[in-house]
Design a protein that fits this description.
With about 575 residues, the chain is of the alpha+beta class. The chain has 20 helices and 19 strands. It has a 19-stranded antiparallel sheet, with helices on both faces.
Amino acid sequence: MPRFIKRTLAASVLLGLTASCTQEAEPPEAGLLQFVPAETPYVFVTREKLPDGLRDKLGNYYAAQLASQRKIFASVREQIEAEAAGSPESEKVAKGFDILDAILSEFEGHESIEQVRELGLEPAPRSVIYGIGVLPAMRVEISDAAKFNAMLDRVEQKAGVAADRAKAGELEYRRIDMGPVDAVLAVTDQYAIAGALVDSRFDTDLPLLLGQSAPEKTLADNGDIKALTDKYGFVGYGEGFIKVDTLLSIALGKATGRNAEIMKALQPEPVPMSAGCSALTEGVVANMPRMVAGITEAKDERMVARFTWETSPVVAEQLQKLAAPVPGVGQPYDGMMSVGVGVDLPQLRNGIESLLRYVMNNGAECEWVDKDEIQQAIPQLSMVFGPMTAGVKGFNLQLDELTLDPQTMMPTDVKAGLLAAVDDPRGIFAMGAMFNPALAALDVPSDGTFVDLPPEVGIQAPMPNVKVAMKDQSLMLVAGNDSTSVAQSMLDATPTTPAPLMVFDYGIHKLVEKFGGLVEQTAANMEASGDAAMAQEMRTQLESFRMQAQLFDRVRVSVLADKQGLTMDQVMELR
């Protein structure tokens, strides 16, 4: 995708965060989707108002985030402008940053939902972001048109930008020259409207953007969003898709209709890819054509989001074969942090081999493909994923407590456990004994009884009181002076169905409370030693985590394969 389009999409997302939701009645049945062309290559729509309690929580969180972004943005701007210095685009980049800086300056000091409402908007809106062709458009409900327009006036003044004013019928809009395209901003009693239109289609597409003419067919007409919500259980608080195959085709110069005119006007740099490599890439993407995302649960104390990269049935079947059940992975957890992975390595080898053979068989005309190298690489897969690793299914690491020495940053106490799911735990242990004679002298029963690892093994320091056990197809390690509860958790663990490929579960509030002071001290030490830039970056990251900890108690991210493709579920427990 051309750089201009990527920058414009990013700017649209930022503008979407600044828009607001109304206190008026709900939109009609077609709602925001009545403005969206059915052929849009991407869309994300929030059709329903969030429950009041959750809306206030998210509103305050987003307000605090926006209020702090200008400082973070300044350091990013400095880096990007340094990279762009001397280039033909440097002046445009600087002007774009001036506008973004002016927008962010409006949110400084507005750290609550009440303060953001003073700007005529709210940070948790009903909204839609979509494409008129490939170019972005958005429509967001507002609560006070006069206040919002006043903010736009201040942004223009601060940024040194004088947008042209014009009218379409009775609706006034702002037009900002951005080269081959123009940005358009308009405000109605109900909506803030923004989009990018190429000059050659401006008069044709402006009524479409402003809602003064209807698309020939809309997303409300074709039922795509309804089908999406029915299929994935989205609940109206945010859902959408990106057609990866369509965007790739446009980027490769195969656009048609409106998009062909847009790309002609943009005159993007050609993608450096031969016809053979283009065909190969399109073939790969045809098996993973669309990404979808949405909210599946939204309550005062909990939100759940789902992201799925849809694949062909053949690829989905292969992905599902990768999952290996590991006791405990995917089960509820309330400690400090856990990480679990379950992958069938022989199936992973088979999947990589299938992909390599597809590339070899379909990439004969692609200069990137070296058939001889691929043919040599395929047998080596059996060496990488050979008998020594074939029985290893994954692991589950739980870290309940951790205390670090502030001077050395080494652990002084820990409560943690590691379960390795293996077909033959006795054999794996014996293999370790070949490299460490101290293990050979250790008698570990197979009934789950934990045995102390002697210091001679060499892993006691700095970890205190390490024990090992075996049970069924699990090899377990626990560490800490009070590891009884962890040990019992490991022994009682059972696999979940369907088995996830990976789970990352962390109590962000616990982590910030435990290590926030330590990070501050480390940053101070770094600053004292002369590394002020790194110290500031560390403080910025800590501030971001602290903001998250005010909203989130814990977050769990699970990756699994299902009949739709590759799915990531994110469960957010709120404070």
